Automatic annotation (TrEMBL):
It is found in: Cell inner membrane. Its main location: membrane. Pfam families: Lip_A_acyltrans. GO terms for biological process: glycolipid biosynthetic process. GO terms for molecular function: acyltransferase activity. Keywords: Acyltransferase, Cell inner membrane, Cell membrane, Membrane, Transferase. GO terms for cellular component: plasma membrane. It comes from Pseudohoeflea suaedae. This is Lipid A biosynthesis lauroyl acyltransferase.
Length: 318
């Protein structure tokens, strides 16, 4: 027997309810960000951090964060997991409100990159990439304020076309995209056609930036903190197609509302016996690098992301 399809009126009602909910949430978030922009940057960011550390643990995502932390750090105590999760809520809240203060917080001294609010490690690599005019890929993770990386690259004259995943809420997505376009140069939303756009950029001897720590359905089978995950193979496929250099980069939050942008030396991409880039092995290499970063600063990574695809398991436990 064929299963009955939902009545069109029911489907339409569901769509309308979802749009209204998105509008309400989006309008609230955007209004709060606009309100925040009326106050001094540092006190506002600190207040938001303080609130997030208290509100975040009351959300449903906190349970997922703690479960993820238990998977990643079984040697740590429940109290340590809780502290890392609270640090994460503070860091993520800072990231959200820092959008409206980008012009104020991005204080980079080009002549002396170790000074200023934003310091840079790997200036020589930025300079070489500008001079070489060869295709390259820079990858990063959702750590610190990762949004500052393309701004930092642009400050040294390096244009990078960044792949990003828009928020699910369309109203928030438009607002975030507007802010990113103002400060971050070329952007490619992660939807159909994104791979082609990035390939064109590399074909023109340009640079591409990618976040590589998100769950990806039908991705390469890899591990992260010793547990099975699926990883987006796009970076490996592009590296194989264009035989381009690949560089790790990250943003680290420092005390006093400061940041350190780091671009590391080129990594050696794994290759198969025929000399071509080994895509699955490359995916594992990316995960290993991100794990190294997260272990160093665990409170600066997004533990509420369902990286290990365990949300269904949590629902069954209820």
């Amino acid at each position: 027997m064929r299963s009955k399809l939902p009545h069109p009126l029911i489907v339409k009602t569901f769509v309308i309810i979802r749009r209204v909910r998105h509008w309400l949430v989006g309008t609230t978030v955007i209004s709060l960000l606009k309100l925040a922009s009326l106050f001094p940057a540092d006190p506002t960011i600190n207040v938001v951090d303080w609130l997030a550390r208290r509100i975040g643990p009351k959300t449903s995502r906190h349970k997922l964060a703690l479960y993820n932390l238990a998977l990643a750090f079984p040697e740590k105590t429940a109290e340590e997991h809780e502290q890392i999760a609270r640090d994460m809520w503070g860091s993520m809240a800072r990231l959200g409100v820092e959008y409206v203060f980008l012009d104020k917080i991005f204080d980079l001294n080009i002549e002396n990159p170790s000074q200023g609010r934003v310091e840079v490690k790997g200036v020589d690599i930025f300079a070489r990439l500008v001079d070489e005019k060869k295709p390259f890929i820079v990858f990063t993770a959702h750590t610190g304020n990762f949004e500052l990386l393309p701004i930092g690259a642009a400050a040294y004259g390096l244009e990078v076309t960044a792949l990003f995943r828009p928020p699910n809420n369309p109203y928030i997505a438009r607002h975030v995209l507007s802010a990113r376009r103002t400060h971050m140069g070329h952007l490619v939303p992660s939807r159909a056609g994104a791979a082609i756009a990035l390939a064109r950029r590399l074909d023109d001897d340009g640079g591409v930036g990618m976040l590589v720590d998100q769950k990806f359905q039908r991705g390469a089978k890899t591990t992260f903190f010793g547990h099975a995950v699926q990883t987006n193979p796009l970076l490996g496929k592009l590296a194989r197609q264009f035989n381009c250099s690949v560089y790790p980069a990250r943003c680290v939050r420092l005390p006093g509302g400061r940041f350190r942008l780091e671009i590391e030396p080129e990594i050696e991409i794994p290759r198969a016996e025929d000399g071509r880039v080994d895509v699955p092995a490359t995916c594992q290499l990316l995960n290993d690098k991100v794990e190294e970063w997260v272990r160093e600063y665990p409170g600066q990574w997004q533990w509420f992301h369902d990286r290990w695809a365990i949300k269904r398991k949590l629902r069954k436990r209820k």
